[in-house]
Amino acid sequence: MNANATAPTRQRKPRPERRIRLEVRPEDNGLGIVRIWVGKEHADYFLTILPADFGRGFKVEKIGLHENEPGYHVNIDGDKKTCECKGHLRHGHCKHADGLAALIAAGQL
Length: 109
What we know:
Elements: E1 18-24, E2 31-38, E3 41-50, E4 56-62, E5 72-77, E6 80-83, H1 86-91, H2 95-105
Antiparallel strand pairs: 1-2, 2-3, 3-4, 4-5, 5-6
């Protein structure tokens, strides 16, 4: 083995496109519904607006046969976003927080 040899560069798969659409606007602190796509797959979530000490608070809960999946609390405060899901805890971003921030920026929430 050559001591000067370098390991081959690891190629990352491109991240699938992520999109969100507000299906039902939450009115008077009621439930709304958002649809989130990751690539060609999508899931619908109940959306509840929650009071927050700062920024805007939400709870998203997957609709369907996902009883074991907990709902996630999301907080959007300008550029700061938090979510309780595994993706956000591991990577510092996720489809839930990024999607809700996009809806806020578009004036839909």
